[in-house]
Amino acid sequence: MTAGWTEGCRRIGGGAHPVIALHGWFGSGEAWAPLWPHLDRDAFTYAFPDYRGYGRRRGESGEFTLAEAAADVLALADARGWDRFSLVGHSMGGIVMQRVLADAPDRVRAMVGVSPVPASGVPFDAETRAVFDGAADDPALRRAIVDMTTGKRLTGVWLDAVVAHSLENSDREAFAAYLRAWADTDLHEEIEGSPVPVLAVAGEHDPALGADALRPTFGAWYPSAEIEVLGNAGHYPADEVPVALATSIERHLAGRT
Q1: Partner of 76 at 20 to 30 A CA spacing, among 6, 83, 87, 172?
Q2: Closest CA to 48 of 99, 5, 103, 101
Q3: AB hydrolase-1 domain: from which residue to which, for each copy (predicted)?
């Protein structure tokens, strides 16, 4: 593990409630930036790490699996002295946080999934899977995925910025491997019935991981799960509606012990 994982990741706030926020497949720790001005820095301390092969950890070797990512999250918590903490996970980060829960259930205070991949992964038809597989080498396919998952309704300037961030902040090998990790893994039997408080946030314009995908997964497997739909958002609420997302996250986390 590099020092960058424990020391170089973005940290915001100084509150008593630690929160580790895990980014999505096209993101990085810095992709959470639109959310930062709206976070309660007195109540919470947030860490925004990168996975191996992403952001500050580009060029770092690894297996690029959920198990490895979860182990790194726990190592980060250990390095910070956080015995218990909450987790926020966007998209791919949603299944990474559930791997952390499965591996260390007594350490997780609460979880918020933002357009989160369920613990069962994401089954694709052959045509769609070919698009996702091809995105490792074709920026146009990355752009098409972002456009589709936000309802084909947002400016091309923003679509291009998301793609540029993805290309600049992920190694090709890691990007390709993490697709298999989040799409093809089914760990739902390991977390089913967990009493951890869970909020699953869906964008109303997300055709991939909207409320219809979250109710029979998060809603079925977590007895205390809440499903919330954010208006005027697709798959990237941190960009599309950052104030509303920050409010939802911290409303759910507040008071959790």
Answers
A1: 172
A2: 5
A3: 18-125
* Vertex 246 angle, CA 241 and 248, to 5°: 95
The phi and psi torsions of 254 (rounded to 5 degrees) equal: -60, 130
For the chain, report the end-to-end CA distance as a whole number of angstroms: 30
Instruction: Show the domain range for 68.
Output: 3-253
Structure tokens at 77: 């918590």
Strand duo 44-48 + 108-114: pairing? unpaired
Overall number of domains in the chain: 1
Q: Tens-digit pLDDT profile for the chain (257 aa)? A: 343 445 569 999 999 999 999 999 999 999 999 999 999 999 999 999 999 999 999 999 999 999 999 999 999 999 999 999 999 999 999 999 999 999 999 999 999 999 999 999 999 999 999 999 999 999 999 999 999 999 999 999 999 999 999 999 999 999 999 999 999 999 999 999 999 999 999 999 999 999 999 999 999 999 999 999 999 999 999 999 999 999 999 999 998 87
Q: How far apart are CA 233 and CA 235, in angstroms?
A: 7
